[in-house]
């Protein structure tokens, strides 16, 4: 039986604090061994809930730590760790919670079986609204120094947190032209895990060496200078970042200006080293741009999510008020390969994720339904329509056929409390809108007595 993540946390908590990360070739070899393990089969026709966390996002828990109403303490985003041992969640109460990934064979934490609720093993407090978070790409629970993640919050610098002890390991600061702290709206590690990149307002990217915390960084402008270049480049708030998994140094940046561009990490901050996949306002005359999409080909909202396919050749983008996730072929950069429909009626960020095999794409939506699509054909494989509210976060486990789903959105109660919290159970419904669920979607390897089907 595997050693639980909570037990490892307790063991390392008694050890000295971990230093800032150093590159380790041995941990890369361990990560490759995990990736070479045979992938388990997915069976979306028969699924069951093995874990559900809701009490920590209810009104009782929120009132003890903040003044937010219970229905506003929704889960904003979730991510499985690269080794699949734990799940990280960010919520509206400016907190991050770390959960131990369940063992499907035990069925622990299942609300339907009457077991105790699923609770977090570590909690992290940010001072303001959490914008983005990212796991260290080579994270492995067998290497404590690699167990960390980075976050960015409003009016705060980047924070590197320890996933074992809950301690703050390092802080990375960026400053604008007025020497005032500039908070990143998006954050990501490069594929090698040696640098942290942040997307900032005004078409600005900043890069920190992970081993050198502080205010020493490199700046790359996504907008060319000069009057002749006015209107070109990737303007606006850089709201999403994603690095290609093949280690080529290629990364994608999305902006609220409805643009998606590709950049080379090794380029020395030159706008000419960008490839524009889509920009609604672009005239098609920018230097170094090899492809153009006219506004009639595809209509995108402000980009809020970017995910790479494991082959490194395809990129998925989703936007706010955008009813489709677009799949791009970065080798050609021309018309999108296909689109995956999903309702997005609000400006909320709805998650997008691809499983480790690259066969399935899962998307969140504003209608309270998580949709799983076949990447190759674009067909809808499954729809989880039994969720209580809008689906803001989705994540596939890289180690097991588990799918994590987070629900909730911002609600505005009426002035008359009797109309909102009536005597027909409405209050209880509001308290359970904000939940995290883990679905077990194993195929033929699931024991027959555990294969409890759920109607779509």
Automatic annotation (TrEMBL):
What InterPro entries does its record include?
SWT21/TCAB1_mRNA_Telomere, WD40/YVTN_repeat-like_dom_sf, WD40_repeat_dom_sf, WD40_rpt
Question: What Pfam family is a match for this entry?
Answer: WD40
Protein name (Swiss-Prot/TrEMBL): WD40-repeat-containing domain protein
**Organism annotation:** Tribonema minus
């Amino acid at each position: 039986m595997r050693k639980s993540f909570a037990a490892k946390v307790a063991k390392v908590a008694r050890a000295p604090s971990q230093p800032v990360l150093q590159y380790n070739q041995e941990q890369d070899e361990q990560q490759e061994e995990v990736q070479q393990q045979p992938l388990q089969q997915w069976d979306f026709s028969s699924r069951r809930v093995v874990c559900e966390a809701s009490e920590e996002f209810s009104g009782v828990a929120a009132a003890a730590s903040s003044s937010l109403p219970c229905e506003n303490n929704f889960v904003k985003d979730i991510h499985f760790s690269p080794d699949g041992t734990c799940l990280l969640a960010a919520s509206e109460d400016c907190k991050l919670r770390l959960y131990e990934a369940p063992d499907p064979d035990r069925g622990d934490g299942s609300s339907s079986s009457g077991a105790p609720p699923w609770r977090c093993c570590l909690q992290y407090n940010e001072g303001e609204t959490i914008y983005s978070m990212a796991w260290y790409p080579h994270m492995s629970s067998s290497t404590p120094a690699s167990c960390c993640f980075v976050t960015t919050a409003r009016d705060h610098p980047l924070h590197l947190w320890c996933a074992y002890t809950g301690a703050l390991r390092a802080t990375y600061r960026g400053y604008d032209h007025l020497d005032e702290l500039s908070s990143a709206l998006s954050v990501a590690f490069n594929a090698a895990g040696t640098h942290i990149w942040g997307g900032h307002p005004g078409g600005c990217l900043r890069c920190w060496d992970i081993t050198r915390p502080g205010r020493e960084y490199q700046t790359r402008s996504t907008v060319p200078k000069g009057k002749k270049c006015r209107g070109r480049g990737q303007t606006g708030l850089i709201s999403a970042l994603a690095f290609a998994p093949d280690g080529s140094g290629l990364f994608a940046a999305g902006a609220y200006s409805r643009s998606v561009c590709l950049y080379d990490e090794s380029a020395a901050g030159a706008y000419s080293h960008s490839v524009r996949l889509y920009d609604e306002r672009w005239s098609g005359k920018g230097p170094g741009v090899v492809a153009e999409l006219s506004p009639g080909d595809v209509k995108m909202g402000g980009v809020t999510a970017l995910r790479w396919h494991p082959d490194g050749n395809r990129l998925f983008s989703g936007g706010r008020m955008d009813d489709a996730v677009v799949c791009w072929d970065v080798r050609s950069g021309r018309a999108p390969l296909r689109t995956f429909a999903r309702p997005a009626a609000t400006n909320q960020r709805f998650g997008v994720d691809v499983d480790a095999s690259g066969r399935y794409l899962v998307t969140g939506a504003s209608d309270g339904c998580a949709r799983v699509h076949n990447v190759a054909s674009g067909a809808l494989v499954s729809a989880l329509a039994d969720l209580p509210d809008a689906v803001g976060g989705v994540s596939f486990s890289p180690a097991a056929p588990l799918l994590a789903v987070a629900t909730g959105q911002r609600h505005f109660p009426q002035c008359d409390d009797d109309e909102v919290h009536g005597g027909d159970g409405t209050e209880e419904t509001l308290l359970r809108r904000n939940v995290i669920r883990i679905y077990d979607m194993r195929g033929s390897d699931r024991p027959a007595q555990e294969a409890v089907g759920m109607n779509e």
